[in-house]
Automatic annotation (TrEMBL), chain A:
This is Defective in cullin neddylation protein. It comes from the Eukaryota.
Automatic annotation (TrEMBL), chain B:
Residues 202-432 form the Cullin family profile domain. Keywords: Isopeptide bond, Ubl conjugation, Ubl conjugation pathway. One of its GO terms (molecular function) is ubiquitin protein ligase binding. GO terms for biological process: jasmonic acid mediated signaling pathway; ubiquitin-dependent protein catabolic process. Pfam families: Cullin (PF00888), Cullin_AB (PF26557), Cullin_Nedd8 (PF10557). It comes from the Eukaryota. This is Cullin family profile domain-containing protein. The keyword Transferase does not apply. One of its GO terms (cellular component) is cullin-RING ubiquitin ligase complex. InterPro entries: Cullin, Cullin-like_AB, Cullin_CS, Cullin_homology, Cullin_homology_sf, Cullin_N, Cullin_neddylation_domain, Cullin_repeat-like_dom_sf. Belongs to the cullin family.
Length: 231, 557
């Protein structure tokens, strides 16, 4: 990395000199030392392409997806939302967009495409994945004070988020959720419990499952159902 | 030590060894040849003889060692074979009520550490088996005979269980000298079979019905006062073995309400007596509502007297009908749906008058009328003769409609009375399809349908001048069970919050077991139900799962 770059004047006041990161790619790191204002403007323009009334709304996101050549149901969009720390489902605020893209070091479409494929790897590393998994639930709480998500959405989310990693468990769990009638909604604690279950419980034998422990009741019921129907 | 060294080393040791060998040989023969009682008698004899020997010519310090040796060879080594002897072992002795032999068994094994445990175990298994047989008999009778004779069988069952309890309690006090192990065995055995349902009724309900039969007028228990007291005493003792005590309380309360409101209670003293016993056994909270109900009736009678005074002082207020009103305190009584029955005008006046009177007594209470529990004496002017009919308010309201109409359809009656289909069908059936046909139904089928028409049966007659037309009560069992389940959810919530508030942080298993412990006085909570309530408390932000340890919970202030 050229020493000279550290001497370039940087008018972006908040840029830390942590540019000497190990995965600095040539060229990308120098972007941080572009004039902060110019970069910010590019990001803003990028935002405006999809924004409508100062915010990127669902239609904007659909367009963005088309440009990114992704289905809008693709898990990578959810990952982007996570990275952007988006709060409202289906919307990206200007602030979220700008802060997020800055972190990704992205200011245009092609860079974004690339960043997204990198992002997938980043998300799938353990501590991030747990955070992403939790985010996925909270992101889908659309009403104020909403604490639960309906079963149908949960099934879709499980398939999307956990499916790739725990295909067998997720498929069976989705089957179960659809036939049981005790729960019409799932809360965050149960959602997180599912993740723990997939990680900790040996499958399909379920040998180490102990229902006297604090597993959510719905998982106790799931295990009973599995033992009855899938032996 | 000095002085005993020789005695112990040179003599006692060898003596003990030889004693051991001697008895070992004997025991190996006796165990094959003798029955359990015979063997035990011999063992007792041997022990006595050895004790005598010590007192005659041995140092007293040898006694415990000698006794232990003999006990070991005769009783410990062969304990299992002895107790499990097919024809004469512990099980057989219990079967044949061999009280003396069992007492001996107790005496012999009492001194041996853990010696009584296998005996207590067999005792428990035996009682459980006998109890289970009784329950099964009642269940079979209920399935085969069904209906009212099935119900009688269920009552017989309670009687038999009481007898079984009396019998084996005697064993515990006499043969087993009140040893805790045997009290425990008896308790656990009864807890097993006393919680089995019979013929669709839970044991809680059976017990409540049994009490109702004793306490109501004309109940099938025609016993002396002392016998009744004794039976009530025993019934309350049985309650200790029932895990769903709250369910019993609810059934009891419902039946108590009917006894009190319809004046079917045989004896006020007995009513109060059983409440005292229940209070002693289960605590004041258990009986507070029931006591309130009994007191309400006394107050209601006083109130009625005041009402009658009020009427005599206000002649023009009189509704023209003899009215008696029982005012109940809502919290004590089971919940009753107030109905929107359209009262006949005669009764409307009654209600108004009473309201006027009640307001002179207190302005801070609200009266909700429960017509479904009312009774009415109504004069039927039939062609042959007048007959007084004792009916429920609902039935009276129906009949009075025919004062102004000759013929009414089902739907007309429904509109005029404003009752539900369920209520109306029951009502009309009791008046037109049962024993006394006060109304004629067209078509003359056995069931009520919505297209039926009804007419006053002027040709009705009976040799009595006064008849009661029963209205069969609605089966309340389902509602009672639902109400109790609902109360349990609140109770579990409260217990969980109480525990977590004081402990702040607690592991899951401990929380569950403490919760079960706290609630055990009233019911045995289902573990899944507890988990469900915990989930609810998490959603309501009372609790949270610890971030590090998912089996730990924290109280959120």
């Amino acid at each position: 990395m050229p020493r000279a770059s550290s001497k370039r004047k940087s008018s972006a006041p908040q840029n830390p000199p942590a540019v000497k990161s190990s995965n600095a790619r040539s060229g990308t790191s120098t972007h941080l030392f572009y004039s902060g204002k110019a970069k910010a403007k590019e990001i803003e323009n990028f935002f405006d392409k999809y924004a409508n009334g100062g915010i990127i709304d669902p239609d904007g996101i659909v367009t963005l997806c088309k440009d990114l050549e992704l289905e809008y149901t693709d898990v990578r969009i959810l990952m982007l939302a996570w990275k952007l720390k988006a709060v409202k489902l289906g919307y990206f605020t200007q602030d979220e967009w700008e802060t997020g893209l800055k972190t990704l070091q992205v200011n245009n479409l092609s860079k974004l495409k690339k960043a997204i494929s990198e992002l997938e790897k980043e998300v799938r590393t353990p501590p991030n994945f747990a955070d992403f998994y939790s985010f996925a639930f909270r992101y889908h709480l659309t009403e104020e004070k909403q604490k639960n998500i309906d079963i149908e959405t949960i099934c879709e989310l499980l398939n999307l988020v956990l499916g790739p990693q725990f295909r067998r468990q997720v498929d069976l769990l989705i089957d179960y959720l659809k036939v049981q009638s005790n729960y019409k909604v799932i809360n965050l604690d149960q959602w997180l419990g599912i993740f723990r279950f997939c990680n900790e419980i040996s499958f399909p034998d379920l040998e180490n499952y102990d229902e006297t422990q604090a597993w959510p009741l719905i998982l106790d019921n799931f295990v009973d159902w599995l033992r009855e129907n899938h032996r | 030590m000095g002085q005993m060294d020789s005695y112990e080393k040179d003599f006692e040791e060898h003596m003990l060894q030889d004693t051991g060998a001697y008895y070992s040989r004997k025991a190996s023969n006796w165990i094959l040849e003798d029955s359990c009682p015979e063997y035990m008698i011999k063992a007792e004899e041997c022990l006595k003889k050895e004790r005598d020997r010590v007192s005659h010519y041995l140092h007293s310090s040898s006694e415990p060692k000698l006794v232990e040796k003999v006990q070991h060879e005769l009783l410990v080594v062969y304990a299992t074979e002895l107790l499990e002897k097919e024809q004469s072992g512990c099980r057989a002795l219990l079967r044949e009520d061999k009280v003396e032999d069992l007492s001996r068994m107790y005496r012999l094994y009492h001194k041996i550490p853990k010696g009584l445990e296998p005996v207590a175990n067999v005792f428990k298994q035996h009682i459980t088996a006998e109890g289970t047989v009784l329950v099964q008999q009642a269940e079979d009778a209920a399935t085969n005979q069904g209906g009212s004779s099935g119900a009688v069988q269920e009552q017989v069952l309670i009687r038999k269980i009481i007898e079984l309890h009396d019998k084996y309690m005697e064993y515990v006090t006499n043969c087993f000298i009140n040893h805790t192990l045997f009290h425990k065995a008896l308790k656990e055995a009864f807890e097993i079979f006393c919680n089995k349902a019979v013929g669709g009724s839970s044991s809680s309900e059976l017990l409540a019905t049994f009490c109702d039969n004793i306490l109501k007028k004309g109940g099938n228990e025609k016993l002396s006062d002392e016998a009744i007291e004794e039976t009530l005493e025993k019934v309350v003792k049985l309650l200790a073995y029932i895990s769903d005590k709250d369910l019993f309380a609810e059934f009891y309360r419902k039946k108590l309400a009917r006894r009190l409101l319809f004046d079917r209670s045989a004896n006020d003293d007995h009513e109060r007596s059983i409440l005292t016993k229940l209070k002693q056994q289960c605590g004041g909270q258990f009986t507070s509502k029931m006591e309130g109900m009994v007191t309400d009736l006394t107050l209601a009678r006083e109130n009625q007297t005041s009402f009658e005074e009020y009427l005599s002082n206000n002649q023009n207020a009189h509704p023209g009908i003899d009215l008696s009103v029982t005012v109940l305190t809502t919290g004590f009584w089971p919940s009753y749906k107030s109905s929107d029955l359209n009262l006949p005008s005669e009764m409307v006046k009654c209600v108004e008058v009473f309201k006027g009177f009640y307001e002179t007594k207190t302005k801070h209470r609200k009266l909700t009328w429960i017509y479904s529990l009312g009774q009415c004496n109504i004069n039927g002017k039939f062609e042959q003769k007048n007959i007084e009919l004792i009916v429920s308010t609902y039935q009276a309201a129906t009949l009075l409609l025919f004062n102004t109409s000759d013929r009414l359809s089902y739907s007309e009656i429904m509109t005029q009375l404003n009752l539900t289909h369920d209520d109306l069908v029951r009502l009309l059936h009791s008046l037109s399809c049962a024993k006394y046909k006060i109304l004629l139904k067209e078509p003359n089928t056995k069931t009520i349908s919505q297209s039926d028409h009804f007419e006053f049966n002027s040709k009705f007659t009976d040799r009595m001048r006064r008849i009661k037309i029963p209205l069969p009560p609605v089966d309340e069992r389902k509602k009672i069970v639902e109400d109790v389940d609902k109360d349990r959810r609140y109770a579990i919530d409260a217990a969980l919050v109480r525990i977590m508030k004081s402990r702040k942080v607690l592991g899951h298993q401990q929380l569950v077991s403490e919760c079960v412990e706290q609630l055990s006085r009233m019911f045995k909570p289902d573990i899944k139900a507890i988990k469900k309530r915990m989930e609810d408390l998490i959603t309501r932000d009372y609790l949270e799962r610890d971030k590090e340890n998912p089996n730990m919970f924290r109280y959120l202030a």
